[in-house]
Amino acid sequence: MTPSARLVAFRCLQRIDHEGAYANLVVNAELQRSKLSERDRKFVTELVYGTTRMRRACDALVDRFVATEPSPEVRTVLRLGAYQLHYAGVAPHAAVGETVELAPKRARGFVNAVLRRVSSADIAWPSEAVRLSYPDWIVERLVTELGHDDAMASLAAMNEAPTVTEREDGYIQDLGSQWVAAAVPAVEGELVLDVCAAPGGKATAIAATGAVVVAADLQPQRVGLIAANVVNTRQRAVLPVVADGTLPPFAAESFHHVLIDAPCSGLGTLRRRADARWRITPADVTELVALQQHLIDASAPLVRPGGTLVYSVCTLLADESVHHRVPDDFEVIVDRPAGEWRPLGVGWRVLPHDAGTDGMIVVRYRKRS
Ligand SMILES: C[S@@+](CC[C@H](N)C(=O)[O-])C[C@H]1O[C@@H](n2cnc3c(N)ncnc32)[C@H](O)[C@@H]1O
């Protein structure tokens, strides 16, 4: 018998909640094994990603009616039920009745009682972080960086499912990422280095200008993704290479433009990775800041005099972007790039709620001739 959509969602959530599995990998694997209809697949995806994003808020919804911590599997059932009741617009009789069935027999009366109360009681949220379902540190950090209103709007926008934008060549790429690629002022016949290029979204976009793009990445299997995307987009002027951007195997001053689309905390793309907010820590940010500076130090010498260095990240934090140092022979390019960018120090930032894109930061420098 085909397992129901809720059962598939529950299995995914168990692995994400209690085994540290990655949401996207688990959902893809479980959906592949299942024989669910297209409609049910969408439902499973929404339930798993939504319940994972809203985990903290779902816990607050149920914890008012729970005296002692339930077993891990019952905790997951309660989260899934609360999500359906409070966020997914599922009718209470279905949300409660069918979710109760997922619990072990001995706990069904308890789950039923808690979910019924969740469905009928209003909640007074203890904090914005709980209401919006983020760790405290992320909310605090964004409020410091963006001010209260933009932080709340950004956080709320990243609780929505991401939009899908397709380029002319068929590649699916967020508009914010397209704006970053367009901020590299390459023209036909120029040589561009994309230091952190996998899976090749920006490299293939830049190659559409007629420039030749050396698309490097540290991870061999991810360079394989670049190669596949070169074939899919037919952007043959992209040359995938395995290379460490902190020790680049290229001669000094060999590129007209160098793009560093650096590894970052991803705090601008949390809508895309439902579990990321629960993984990333302030210590990770500190480590990433050091790696990013290292990538800039190693890549800057590769830019020709008169050429450009473009640095980008899909986070919202100034520490991961505009606070980095560049050598003295670089000057900031001050004109506004195309897209919904707001000024941020020496660079530009897109907030997730401004145009329904991922959040991004870009900084552009020119090397003096
Ligand atoms: C933000 S992603 C790049 C996305 C890509 N530019 C695109 O638009 O499709 C960052 C990439 O940096 C790579 N990376 C991490 N450390 C690196 C290093 N030391 N040298 C080169 N690439 C690195 C990661 O493997 C990852 O693919």
Instruction: Say which molecules are bound, naming each kind only once.
Output: S-adenosylmethionine
Within the CATH hierarchy, at the fold level, what is the topology of the largest domain? Rossmann fold
Indicate the low-confidence ranges by residue numbers.
none
By DSSP, the count of extended strands is 9
Query: Biggest β-sheet: count, sense, barrel?
Result: 9 strands, mixed
CATH architecture of the largest domain: 3-Layer(aba) Sandwich
Task: Give me the strand/helix succession.
Answer: HHHHHHHHHHHEHEHEEHHEEEEHE
Proportion of residues in extended strands: 5-15%
List the total number of helices: 16
Distance between the termini: 70 Å
Q: Which structural category fits the helices and strands? A: alpha/beta
CATH class of the largest domain: Alpha Beta
Rg measurement, Å: 23 Å
What portion of residues is helical?
40-55%
What's the quaternary structure here? single chain
Fold and architecture overview:
- The protein has 369 residues and is α/β, with parallel strands linked by helices.
- It has two domains: 5-120, N-utilizing Substance Protein B Homolog, Chain A; 175-367, 3-Layer(aba) Sandwich (Rossmann fold), CATH 3.40.50.150.
- It contains 16 helices and nine strands.
- It has helices spanning 5-19, 23-33, 38-53, 55-63, 72-86, 92-100, 108-120, 128-132, 136-146, 148-157, 175-182, 201-207, 220-233, 276-279, 282-299, 352-355; strands at residues 191-194, 212-217, 238-242, 255-261, 303-313, 330-332, 342-344, 347-350, 360-367.
- Strands 1, 2, 3, 4, 5, 6, 7, 8 and 9 form a nine-stranded mixed β-sheet that branches.
- Strand 7 (342-344) and strand 8 (347-350) form a beta hairpin.
- Helix 1 (5-19) packs antiparallel against helix 2, helix 5 runs parallel beside helix 7 and helix 9 (136-146) packs across helix 10 (148-157).
- The longest helix has 18 residues, at 282-299.
- Bound molecules: S-adenosylmethionine.
- Residues 177, 195-202, 217-219, 222, 244-246, 261, 263 line the site of S-adenosylmethionine (SAM).
- S-adenosylmethionine (SAM) binds at residues 177, 195-202, 217-219, 222, 244-246, 261, 263.
